[in-house]
Design goal:
The complex is a heterotrimer of chains A (389), B (225) and C (319). Chain A contains 13 helices and twelve strands. Chain A has 389 residues and is of the alpha+beta class. The two termini of chain C are 41 Å apart. Classes of the chains: A alpha+beta (389), B alpha/beta (225), C mainly alpha (319). Chains in contact: A-B, A-C, B-C. The interface between A and B is medium-sized, with 26 and 36 residues. Bound molecules: adenosine-5'-triphosphate (ATP) and magnesium ion.
Chain lengths: 389, 225, 319
């Protein structure tokens, strides 16, 4: 037997006394770990999504809101050396009045290879010809569900300003698993999307630029600034940075809240642990009498703390893994994506971000162990003559 | 023969210079020789347990000299005092002081944990002692389920695990019936014959009846008579 | 002010350790001023017990600091993502004047607290705790170092601007760097020559038990290793003659080799210095500390040399 074995025995044999701390600790780890799993999985999916994005995006902003951009500059941009391809992109929220929900409408130029490539993997056996023959759209499974609630089984009527409602057939449903961020979207032909979203023919939401040589990007950005000085130019790097910052920021806020409440737990734990009862004192007296030193008692007490914290940590992380990745609709997703616009039908991709768990380890186990130092020492110096009284 | 314990003008005052001041041991001078079987007799409150605690380095005296196996026990810092207790002393208590939630075998082994002994050696040594006190078949029983006599034999096995040359026992028979008391005294006598020095604080007459060559020390109100 | 999850966690742990130190300071102060081993008073008995609390806290602080150091390096590397211009921790460290100081402080604190714990272990082996005074003077130094470190940490992180462009490692250490260069106008081959010669000196002084020489040589070795690693060996790790940086070594692309290299180097110097201090203060032999030191120093030199040899075997040329 060593101190660890002894500590595990004293813990297990006094389970009823120790179980409360264990449960609370596990619960804390569970919450924090669920948050981390959700955040890093979303971040990871977002990174993968960004990977498929064009290298540079040009937007026109008015009062920091996205405004339609004039597509006439496309030709000029195409002439910049190093630019392989320039195309317009259309997207925007359509407000579905009756349901009081927004639907994200994406317009795609299906005759363009680059854009068609992005759509292809969403839908198996996609037959372009039959799709383009009529007014068709692809919808996400969540949108499909929403429309069905309002008895739109085969088609949907988009209300367009100053015009007849536009009837668009539901051609098919794409799988939400493939792309988390298209969860609230419908995809249709570009001209039709422009119509529904109220864009003029020579307008787009943004202009996308593909640059094969990544080292050229900075140069091209400089030239774009000359062509359209008022536009906002976003590179893929910016997008990565921005998305990471956002998640890091939300993560930081959560972390601060978490630390505060965890400290509360520790204070309660500390006051409980530092009051040793008569039986505890006796136990220590006996050990001291049979030859344990102050340091030996400390080792035993600290081993107990290490076991409690590691077992709680592992069970908390394991439980949250099961909850986050095997169950639908976990509440943590809405913290990040907001609850109004998400059609809450999301299963996250399992993703394990070691750094986050190192952080979690630091902010839980170290303070926990720190809060056991004083109680451990205090019990170790309990009067050793207790055993003889 | 050499002295195992040497005490000279030992004083112990609880809470000195307060209203609760209590002079528990007064000017005690005594010595115990190697291989002796001693009992410390006195009424309740006379200071028997206190004297044993001081000898076992659990309590620091206020003044005076105390040497056990030539170690200046009263001046030793904790690390040395604990090592000393572990290597030279075996404690036996009135109310057994076992860990109820531990099995007999685990209880006996606890005394070896700080030594860093290997698991296998620890177990062999513990079983050796359990068979000596006739408790081997109860090794996996929880201590709380033992009878009083069994508890005390288990406690003796624990006290003996480091092969101590001195045993300090505080009223080891006070909670036992006659038969079990005899049993415990037999074990102690046997150890004494093998050379272990034994000091028992007790007011049980049975020791005087059973143990030959017994050295009786009387204590009253903290003073030796 | 720069902000990230890792940073919040890091500062939180640092503050926790700082609080523990403040918590223990009163005990330490009492021990320093009221200690009298021969007194049978209750106070002395209490102080002896409090000594255990202080050592427990130091033990905890050292262990935390040791695991926190690689985390800190990793944090600096990850912050480089947020600073324009920075490619690795080099740019982040040089973002303001406190970065270098902070790193050095961290290593010094690990040295001092490690030495303290070895002294403590030796003290407990003695029957009259004779090293309490030196231990607690050392504690005082450590206490002020810890508080100073917290202050520098605060200044360092609040003074990092996410707007200002910082230098990347090639600007700091590279060919046309205007920052650090080799000391005393030495060229790199002189540094290498001295580096290997110092190792030989370490080895011989260990064999001959010239402990003072060994310790001094270890300090030289630490300094020389910094230059040799940054300006020569690192280029073999990166397999690029122009890439000179002591921090990129910690990155995944290079198999986190920086942790081994810097870890063995710092550990080696620590054992030599601790060995010297402990042998001066106590009556105990510290040969085993010097042995640990030599083993770690040797691991460092072997790992460095191996990179050059492997590169030569693979490519048939030197960089
Ligand atoms: N910590 C203490 N503080 C103050 N007085 C104490 C303390 N411990 C013991 N005493 C007193 O010292 C005296 C001796 O106590 P001790 O326990 O040694 O008696 P004892 O001879 O063992 O008695 P018993 O036969 O009842 O066990 C008692 O009067 C007791 O009240
Ligand atoms: Mg008594």
């Amino acid at each position: 037997m060593n101190f660890f074995k002894f500590a595990s025995l004293t813990l297990v044999r006094n389970l009823s006394k120790n179980i409360i701390v264990f449960i609370f600790f596990t619960l804390f780890i569970f919450i924090a770990s669920s948050f981390i799993f959700t955040a890093s999985s979303l971040q990871n999916s977002l990174d993968a999504e960004l990977e498929t994005q064009p290298d540079i995006i040009v937007q026109y902003k008015k009062a920091s809101r996205n405004h339609p951009i004039d597509t006439s500059i496309i030709d000029e941009i195409s002439d910049i050396p190093g630019v392989e391809k320039v195309y317009e992109r259309i997207f925007g929220y359509y407000f579905f009045d009756t349901a009081n929900k927004y639907i994200n409408v994406l317009g795609i130029d299906f005759l363009d290879d680059e854009q068609e490539k992005q759509i292809k993997h969403l839908y198996k056996n996609f037959d372009l010809k039959s799709f383009l023959q009529e007014d068709n759209m692809l919808v996400s499974s969540s949108v499909k569900k929403l429309l069905e609630q309002y008895y739109y089984e085969k088609f949907f009527n988009f209300i367009v300003e100053d015009e007849e409602p536009k009837k668009v057939n539901i051609y098919g449903v794409f799988d939400k698993k493939i792309n988390l961020f298209l969860n609230d979207s419908v995809i249709m032909e570009m001209a039709m999307a422009k119509d529904i979203l109220g864009y003029e023919e020579n307008e787009a939401s943004e202009i996308a630029i593909i640059v094969p040589n990544k080292l050229e990007i900075d140069n091209i950005v400089q030239k774009l600034l000359v062509i359209t000085p008022t536009s906002k130019i976003i590179t893929k790097n910016n997008m990565y940075k921005y998305s990471h910052e956002l998640y890091d920021y939300k993560g930081g806020i959560f972390l601060s809240l978490f630390i505060t409440s965890f400290l509360g737990f520790l204070v309660i734990f500390y006051s409980q642990a530092s009051s040793i009862n008569g039986a505890g004192k006796k136990q220590i007296g006996i050990l001291r009498a049979i030859g344990w030193s102050i340091n030996d008692i400390i080792k035993w007490k600290m081993s107990e703390a290490v076991i409690v914290s590691f077992v709680s940590f592992l069970s908390g992380v394991l439980l949250s893994y099961v909850y986050i990745f095997l169950f639908k609709n976990n509440i943590f997703v809405s913290i990040f994506l907001g609850s109004e616009n998400v059609y809450k039908d999301i299963i996250l991709e399992p993703f394990f971000d070691i750094n986050s768990f190192v952080i979690l380890f630091f902010i839980t186990i170290i303070p926990y162990l720190a809060s056991t130092l004083h109680p451990a020492w205090k019990s170790s110096i309990a009067d050793p003559t207790e055993a003889i009284k | 023969m050499t002295n195992v314990i040497e005490v000279e003008k030992l004083n112990l005052i609880f809470s000195p210079n307060t209203s609760r001041e209590f002079h528990a041991l007064k000017n005690i001078t005594m010595s115990i020789k190697e291989g002796e079987f001693c009992i410390l007799k006195g009424v309740s409150g006379s200071g028997k347990s206190t004297l044993l605690s001081v000898m076992g380095a659990l309590l620091k005296p206020t003044s005076g000299k105390l040497e056990v196996f030539s170690n200046p026990v009263s001046k030793m810092p904790d690390f040395h005092a604990s090592t000393f207790r572990r290597e030279h002393l075996g404690f036996i208590f009135q109310n057994f002081n076992l860990f109820d939630e531990f099995t007999v075998l685990e209880n006996v082994q606890t005394a070896l944990i700080p030594t860093g002994t290997s698991v296998s050696h620890m177990k062999t040594r513990a079983l050796e002692l359990l068979s000596m006190v006739n408790l081997k078949d109860k090794k996996d029983t929880f201590a709380r389920n033992l009878s009083g006599g069994e508890k005390q034999r288990c406690a003796i096995a624990r006290a003996l695990i480091n092969n101590p040359k001195l045993i300090l026992a505080d009223e080891p028979t006070a909670n036992l019936d006659k038969k079990n008391s005899e049993n415990v005294i037999e074990i102690l006598t046997k150890l004494n014959q093998q050379g272990t020095t034994i000091l028992v604080a007790t007011h049980d007459e049975i020791f005087e009846q059973m143990v030959p060559n017994l050295n009786v020390i009387h204590i009253k109100e903290g003073t030796l008579l | 002010m720069i902000f990230s999850k890792s940073l919040v966690a890091f500062l939180f742990v640092e503050v926790t350790i700082g609080l523990l130190f403040i918590f223990s300071f009163y005990f330490a102060y009492m021990i320093l001023t009221r200690w009298n081993f021969n007194s049978p008073s209750k106070l002395q008995y209490t102080l002896e017990k409090r000594d255990y609390f202080v050592s427990l806290i130091l033990y905890f602080a050292l262990s935390s600091k040791v695991v926190l150091l690689p985390f800190f390096i990793n944090l600096l590397n990850s912050l480089s993502e947020k600073l324009p211009g920075a490619m690795c921790a080099a740019g982040v460290v040089s973002a303001n004047e406190y970065g270098q100081l902070l790193l050095i402080l961290k290593v010094v604190i690990i040295f001092v607290s490690g030495t303290w714990l070895i002294l403590n272990a030796k003290d407990k082996l003695e029957v009259n705790l004779p090293y309490v005074k030196p231990r607690y003077y050392l504690y005082l130094i450590l206490f002020f170092l810890i508080i100073f470190e917290l202050l520098i940490e605060y200044l360092y992180f609040t003074n990092i601007s996410t707007e200002e462009v910082v230098l990347c490692c090639s600007a700091l250490y590279g060919a046309n760097s205007n920052g650090l260069t080799l000391p005393f106008g030495l060229d790199i081959f002189a540094v290498l020559y001295l580096f290997y010669a110092t190792w030989v000196l370490l080895f011989l002084s260990y064999i001959k038990k010239y402990l003072l020489i060994n310790t001094v040589a270890n300090i030289f070795y630490l300094v020389l290793s910094f230059y040799a690693l940054t300006y020569f060996f690192s280029t073999y790790v990166y397999e690029l003659p122009t890439h000179k940086c002591p921090y990129c070594l910690f990155q995944k692309e290079y198999h986190y080799i920086g942790y081994l290299l810097w870890g063995s180097l710092i550990g080696g110097s620590f054992y030599a210095i601790a060995g010297f201090v402990v042998s001066k203060i106590t009556r105990f032999k510290t040969d085993y500390l010097y042995r640990n030191s030599l083993v770690l120093d040797t691991i460092f030199i072997l790992a460095c040399t191996l990179y050059v040899v492997v590169y030569y075997l693979k490519n048939g040329v030197f960089l």
